[in-house]
Amino acid sequence: MKIPYGKQSISNKDILVVKKTLQSNFLTQGPKVKFFENSIAKFVGSKHVVAVNSATSALHIACLSIGLKKDDYLWTSANSFVASSNCALYCGAKIDFIDIDIKTYNICHKKLEKKLEYAKKKRILPKVIVVVHICGFSAPMKEIYKLSKKYKFKIIEDASHAIGGLYFKNKIGSCKFSDITVFSFHPVKIITTAEGGAAITNNSKIANNLRLYADHGVARNKNKSKFKGKELWNFDQIKLGYNYRMNEIQAALGLSQLKKINSFLRIRNTIANRYNRELKNLPIILPNMDSNIYSSFHLYVILVKNTREHKKLFNYLIMKKIIVNLHYIPIYRHSFYKSLGFKKGYCPSAEDYYSRAISLPIYPNIKNTEQKYVINCIKDYFK
Question: What is this structure's pTM?
C-alpha cells in the first residue's frame, strides 16, 4: 500500500452533513456559505471572510480588490505554487520574484529590502507583494509590514498552507500585518471543502469588492444598486466579475471540518515532532523551529545536505511506495515563466532549496506504523 505525502481526512460525520445538504432546498446560494464565512472569521479573529471555489480564485479577486491593474508590479516568493504569481498576470500586471531565506524557506526580508531599494531607484516598486507562508510557517510579517509602510505596497498573505498557524500569538488570517489573507481548502490542506478557498480582510471596502468580483460583479443589495426601483427582483452588475462562488455542499463540508481543526493541528504537530526526534542525527536539515511561530504543518520538508543524494533518496522512497513530493520548483523555472524572460539562477537560495527538498508524508490519519516505516526507510538509506 502506498503512503502519500498528503491526504484528506473525511469522517462519517462529514459525509452525513454533505448528504443532508444534498437533500436540502439549497445546493448553492443558501445559508451555509455565510455560516462558514462567519465561522472562519471567528476562528481567525477577522472582520470579513469571502468564501470562494478555490484559493486561486481568492488570489485573483484579492488582487482586483486592492486595485492591481495593467503594468503594475506584483512580487511574490520564488518558492511557491504558480497560483501565487499567476494572479498578477490575470490582472495584466507584471510579475517579479523575491528570493527566500534558506533556513525558513519563506521570503527573506533582508533580500526583499535590497530589492525594494533598487526598485525605488528604477521607479519600478511593486503595488502588491504576495507573501507566502510555506509549509504552514509564517513569513517574517513584522519586517515585511514595516517595509510596506516605507515603500507603500499592499500585502496579500498567501496562507494556503497556514490556516490555524500562529505568528507571535496572532492567528494567521487576522490580517494584523496585511490587507488580505487567502486560505486554501484543497483536499491535502489543513481542512478541506473538496475544492475551495477564502479571502479574509478587516477592510469593509475591500470586502465589498471581494464579494462583487466573486459573484459576477453583481450587486444584490438594493443599497449598492444604481436601480431606484423597489422591486425584490432588481439587481445590478456594477463591475466585471466572475463566478467564483463557493457552493452549499462545499460550505457544509467546511463547517464540519472546521470543528476538527484544532485536533488536526495537534496531530500534524505531533507527527512533525516525531520526525524531528527520529531524523535529527541524519545528514539532512529539518524544519527550522521558531518559538514565535506555531506551524500548521501542511508540509514537512527535509533538505538533504548533499545535493547528490537528492534524486537518489527521492527515488528510493518512491520505490518503497512512499509517495514523497517536492514543494516547489522555483516558479520562474516553469516553461511559461521562462517565456517571459526569467532565467535559471534568478533566485539562488530558491534554487538551492529546490535541489535538496523532499516533502515527507504528513496528514492526520497517517498511522504510527506508516510513519515509523517512513522513518526507518530514511534511516536505512543513510546506513
Answer: 0.96
